[in-house]
Design a protein that fits this description.
single chain, alpha+beta, Cytochrome p450, four-stranded mixed sheet, three-stranded antiparallel sheet, 15 helices, 11 strands, globular
Amino acid sequence: MESIAVSRYEDASLALRNENLAQSLYDEGAVIMQDVLLTLHGDQHRARRTLEFRVFRRDFFRWYETEVFPRTLAETMAPYEAAGRADLIDLGYRVTMNLTADFAGIDRPARTPQETAQLLKLVMTFSEGATLVHSTRDKDAVRAEVRAALAEFDAAFLKGSIDKRKALLARFAKSEIAEDALPRDVLTVLLRNEDKLELPPEILRREMAFYLQAGSHSTANSTTHALHELLAWCEKRPQDRARLESDPLFLQRCVHESFRLHPASPVAWRRPVCPVSLAGGHRAGTEDRVVVDLHQANRDPAIFGADADVFNPHRVLPPNVPPFGLTFGTGVHSCLGRDLDGGVLPRADADPATHQLGIVPLFVRTLLAKGARLDPKEPPVRAQHTARPNWGRYPILLGR
């Protein structure tokens, strides 16, 4: 097997859009990623994505951003504000996990700190299983932990969520309730279309677990990277701290620049489903692996300039190149939650008061408004359980 690296921006973009290259980065994490949306290919992927995309319409994101997220953020941050400190990794997971559970369709009936802690522990186990290829731990031990977590998740959260939605769908079928009384989430969409999809219980369980870990893991890490970049930026340019709090479009642009530098996955692996020709004259067979280096592609000086390795929200980009580069992918496997996380790209006449910023810019904006800063007694620590360049602990102080 030959491993073919693709690292130039244009070449990487072409490879991601090539429908003859199937997702393969998560093969080692099949214990949780087998047959979920992200790892499907071809007609199966298209059918499930089409259904699930009904949840991810832009009007839904706007409603979520203005109505749901502020309440969840305030509720989750309150005890940390009272304490005057937080570990941003822990806080980020708690905020984004609850939001992800809402649009995935996982109910938390008790709404207690204990219930949140239980689900958070499960989600972090799912995240480690999904990124198993980069784990530095014993991989069979991680798989065993994931299987146990899936069983606990099923009993404690998923079964009740399914039963509730099936009861509502039965009432809807009898015209006892209107369609707008049905939950607007992924689980409801899947249950409503069971006859169109092959979704045995174990695949449905993994699909829900995948949504929980993907939404919370990537968003929590992206928030931490963004705050880190902005705190360093403001140390050099203190005059920009006030601008970040008063100019939401500039703040969003800064977060997009952080997305570019810190893609949730630094690489994308693809497996050819038939022999394919790649840029540079390479030809990949079905036994080969195509490694799309998103970290390097997003730092391609031919696209992002001589300072492509540096955080610079003022950089000028070529036409049709998004400020976050290829972080959210492109083509059939582009991230469904891109607009939820990062908002929409502003037009020249965008109104900051009504523009959809995305939950990561809003989260970072709130942190800055609450006086978030590094704790001089506890510097951040990189994660040790994974080869991905993420933070393991990120202590911050809150309050002016």
